[in-house]
User: Fold these one by one.
Assistant:
Number 1:
Amino acid sequence: MTSKPAKCPVCGKPAQAEFRPFCSKRCADVDLGRWFSGDYRIPGAPAPIENDEKAERNDER
Ligand SMILES: [Zn+2]
């Protein structure tokens, strides 16, 4: 009855007052994570961290 409910910028669902402007804690975390990653354009795929061992080996002389 008040103003239109804002949409969650992450998933597009109606935002909840408790988590405004998001619909849930999860979406809030997702958005926060994007900002922390320093690149807001990343669609959300986490970079695989499986080259750790190889990188170490490549470093040996
Ligand atoms: Zn959401």
Note: The domain at 1-41 is CATH 3.30.50.10 (Erythroid Transcription Factor GATA-1; Chain A).
Number 2:
Amino acid sequence: MRAVVLRENHLSIENVPDPVAHPGSVVLEVAACGICGTDHSIYRNRLLPDGAILGHEFAGTVIEVGRGVSDWVPGDRATVLPVPFCGRCELCLTGKQNLCRFGLTNTMGCGGDPGGLAQFAAAPVTSLRRLPSSVDAKRGAVVEPLAVALHAVNLGDVHPGTRVGIMGLGPLGLFAGMIARSHGGLTFGMDVRESRVDCAHQLGLGAFNSEDQADERIRDLTNGGPDVVIEASGRPESIERAARLARVGGRVVMVASYHAPAEIKPGRWVTRGISLLPSIAYTPHEFDAALDMIATGRIDVGPLVDATTPLGEIQAVFDRFDTQSDAIKVLVDPGL
Ligand SMILES: [Zn+2]
Ligand SMILES: [Zn+2]
């Protein structure tokens, strides 16, 4: 099969052996695989060895089932929960599966089994979630990042009337905004790129250009600052800015990938009573809830998953990742 393989200085499209369906597993033909900041930082910071196949946001059709698999047949469509929660550690047993060490270090496409940037991928049945007919493969592939956003919103404790600031209006920030709004929150986003601000407006979310007095305007509209600021930009300098933006006694949720040190003023956090809530991954329950939000139409991800990219353009996708101006989720269709 054709797959995107991580090599020293680039991503290479190579012919590799097809995966096999081991007992308890299936092989999926991948129909859509999303690319996110995590993939980009694995590539840029060489966090995985040569030969790795990335892709942890994907959906497809079962083409082969392994021994002992009775409830899946070829032709069934599924999205994949790529984190193999161990189910036995203290974190898994206390509802904090998103922090399971085994799960995070063995996530498919992120250090665990090969991911979905390939024509085919093997997956254990425990990771499969059936796609209802209302959910096409592109929407199926964004269940994973939607679950990441849902965990951040849940940590932020968003209720009807909660004022929510969102820094960074890429797919993750926009997903968080849409979920916060569906929880009854009042959302105020900001981004340095005008096209992303426009995208937020088209989705009905309040948003400003970060360089256009966004903080002052949001503080004014929220009467003193948001109750919760979701930092989804991944810019280290945004963390302190979030603490300044949040209301006194408010909270800051950090949900992006950070790979550079950040300067913070602890005195400000202490005297303003700002809580810092780091958010990574999701619980299995949140993953299922994210699928449900898409299936029931409660969250319409349609406008963000319009286009797919062929496998052959993967290097260009990664090269322009930092400068990409629109907020559309990049989805690869390995069949193209
Ligand atoms: Zn991701
Ligand atoms: Zn665990």
Note: The radius of gyration is 20 Å.
